């Protein structure tokens, strides 16, 4: 019997896949469609839409509704071919509120012959009437061991040479942070630019800031030398063309792992780091925000 979790593939509910990017959510739906309908029939029984591009209510009323209201009973020998179609809405958390409300109604009307697969990064952005109609599956960041096996296979098939062997791949996976798609893309870029691939090349391509600079910045945060801190920000980070957001992220990781800081102070600093990250995402001045953050670390 074909199954996904506790569900038979012949009696699938509507599904909601959520979790970080690059963890295989969309690939799982596409693989499911192939297992259900076969490599030939699945193209006519699956509608794939990227909700970040087509996010308005008109898409739901036209494309989705028109596809959902038609029935299909074709079968292919060797495949289950249940009497329903699949609609994949990728990045469903980008749908507008009106579009999600319209989608709820479409799901109610055409649930007999259509199954909806919603894929998103943030389940909190999906309205409750939709989540309550779906079986929810949470995808975690790709485990380092599983990721290592996959990228090692890719290197063997594509003939990618590595300077430090598995250490290079482990560095790659740590940079990707559980995002296997990002890891593969970064490996591809490094292979095109450098042969063999080294850890230094991966760090340069990914925009990772050298640990020496992070440590120096943190050391300045532990002093009361505001002038040296301002000079460091201006010359080393801004003129060095490093990403301030990346610096804030790496500095925050260093602060959170410092055993000499108390829990209460780490909590206060964590809130401050989160606010600065939000402001930088929102387009605030990089130099002013970083100087303010490091100044806060000095005095608090």
General description of the model:
- By secondary structure, the chain is of the alpha/beta class.
- It is built from 13 helices and 7 strands.
- It has helices spanning 25-45, 57-68, 97-109, 128-131, 144-158, 166-176, 180-193, 199-206, 211-221, 226-238, 244-256, 263-281, 286-299, and strands spanning 3-4, 7-8, 14-18, 46-50, 85-90, 114-120, 134-138.
- The strands form 2 sheets. The protein has a 5-stranded parallel β-sheet with strand order 4-5-6-3-7. The chain has a two-stranded antiparallel ribbon with strand order 1-2.
- A hairpin with a 2-residue loop joins strand 1 (3-4) and strand 2 (7-8).
- The longest helix has 21 residues, at 25-45.
- The protein is globular.
- 28% of the residues are buried.
**C-alpha Rg (nearest Å):** 24 Å
Shape: globular
- Structural class per helix/strand content? alpha/beta
Number of strands: 7
Spatial strand arrangement across the major sheet: 4-5-6-3-7
Distance between the termini: 61 Å
CATH superfamily of the largest domain: P-loop containing nucleotide triphosphate hydrolases
Strand content: 5-15%
Mean pLDDT: 85
Count of DSSP helices?
A: 13
Largest sheet: 5 strands, parallel
Give me the strand/helix succession.
EEEHEHEHEHEHHHHHHHHH
How many independent structural domains? 3
CATH fold assignment of the largest domain:
Rossmann fold
The residue fraction in helices comes out at: 55-70%
CATH class descriptor of the largest domain: Alpha Beta
List low-pLDDT spans: none
Family: Belongs to the activator 1 small subunits family.
Domain AAA+ ATPase: 11-145
Protein name: Replication factor C subunit 2/4
Keywords: ATP-binding, DNA replication, Nucleotide-binding
């Amino acid at each position: 019997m074909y199954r996904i979790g506790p569900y038979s593939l012949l009696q699938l509910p509507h599904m909601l896949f959520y979790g970080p990017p690059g963890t295989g959510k969309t690939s799982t739906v596409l693989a499911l469609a192939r297992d259900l309908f076969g490599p030939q029939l699945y193209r006519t029984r699956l509608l794939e839409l990227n909700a970040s591009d087509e996010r308005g209510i008109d898409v739901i009323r036209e494309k989705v509704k028109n596809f959902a209201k038609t029935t299909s009973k074709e079968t292919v020998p060797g495949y289950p071919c249940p009497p329903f179609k699949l609609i994949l809405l990728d990045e469903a958390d980008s749908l507008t509120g009106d579009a999600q409300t319209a989608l709820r109604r479409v799901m109610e009307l055409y649930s007999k012959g259509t199954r909806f697969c919603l894929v998103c990064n943030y389940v909190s952005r999906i309205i409750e009437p939709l989540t309550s109609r779906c079986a929810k599956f949470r995808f975690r960041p790709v485990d380092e061991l599983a990721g290592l096996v996959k990228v090692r296979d890719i290197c063997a098939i594509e003939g990618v040479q590595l300077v430090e062997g598995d250490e290079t791949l482990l560095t790659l996976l740590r940079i990707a942070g559980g995002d296997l798609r990002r890891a593969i893309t970064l490996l591809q870029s490094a292979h095109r630019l450098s042969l063999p691939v080294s850890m230094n090349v991966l760090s340069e391509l990914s925009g990772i800031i050298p640990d020496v600079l992070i440590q120096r910045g943190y050391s300045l945060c532990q002093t009361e030398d505001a002038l040296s801190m301002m000079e460091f920000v201006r010359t080393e980070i801004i003129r060095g063309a490093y990403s301030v957001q990346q610096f804030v992220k790496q500095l925050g990781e260093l602060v959170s792992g410092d055993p000499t800081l108390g829990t209460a102070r780490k909590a206060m600093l964590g809130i401050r780091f989160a606010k600065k990250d939000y402001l930088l995402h929102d387009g605030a001045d990089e130099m002013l925000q970083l100087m303010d953050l490091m100044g806060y670390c000095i005095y608090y």
